[in-house]
Amino acid sequence: MSSANTGEDLAYSGYNFSYASPEDGWLKRLVITTIEHRTGKPELQRIYNELHANNPDPYKIWQEILDKLNITLDFAEEQLKKIPTDGPVIFVANHPYGVVDGAIFLHLVSRIRKDYFLLINEVLSREPILKGHLLPVDFRGDEAALQCNLNTKAETTRRLNNGEALIIFPSGAVATRPRWSWNGKAEEWPWRRFICTRIHETKCTVVPLYFHGENSNWFHWVSKFSMNLRLGLLLHEVRNKRGKTIRIEIGDPIAYREMEQYTDRQALIEYLKKRTFDLAK
């Protein structure tokens, strides 16, 4: 679905956020939370609490987050205007950063569509500010999780048939350099085929976006050895984007008639991935 089973969704608990989930073992929680606290979480927690205290508008919160992080966006405004203002749309993108590209993605889409919704980890889907805009994906593997995910699949199809807009990172995990490459380019995790059936069921339009850039050398280095260290550094990767300019390419909408021929799900997801990465050229 929206996320590979890597745990790379923030766990929400009251006004506290972390990549450590209550369901994790104590050692994993300790490693992740220790790294988070030493690499920028307190500052980000303060920003989050300030936003929460002001009861932000769910359509404006993403701009507020970017403003507080002093992140500037570089994209073609005319491409944003090409996005359909109604009717079923699926927005897809590569996933180089984690939280930051997610916030940018949601900001751009919410400027055009108020009926957006995002597939996200079940714990984070409880965030009250965004109620109605988040659908849960549960990775616990038990019967309750299976039922939750079946419900989300059905609800995704229903909402698309109702003319709403789905936002999704098909890879579900942050891009990483190959294990034995120290200076190579970060690579996407395999794109999952969840949206392919939804596309054919709802005959929707797809809009691809491409985010330039990648995370720090430190993030890629620890990713080679430890998933816990990797998760612990994801908040650091938010903090180190402060004051930066992020370049985004927004592709032309892809009408269903351009995808109809791809009856094989793998062929369709590869086509959409190619259309996305062609934007980088």
TrEMBL record:
Keywords assigned by UniProt, alphabetized: Acyltransferase, Transferase
Pfam families: Acyltransf_2
InterPro entries xref list: ACT14924-like_Acyltransf_dom, Plipid/glycerol_acylTrfase
Record domain Phospholipid/glycerol acyltransferase: where: 89-214
Molecular function (Gene Ontology), one example: acyltransferase activity
Protein name: Lysophospholipid acyltransferase family protein
Protein species of origin: Neolewinella lacunae
Classification of source organism: Bacteria, Pseudomonadati, Bacteroidota, Saprospiria, Saprospirales
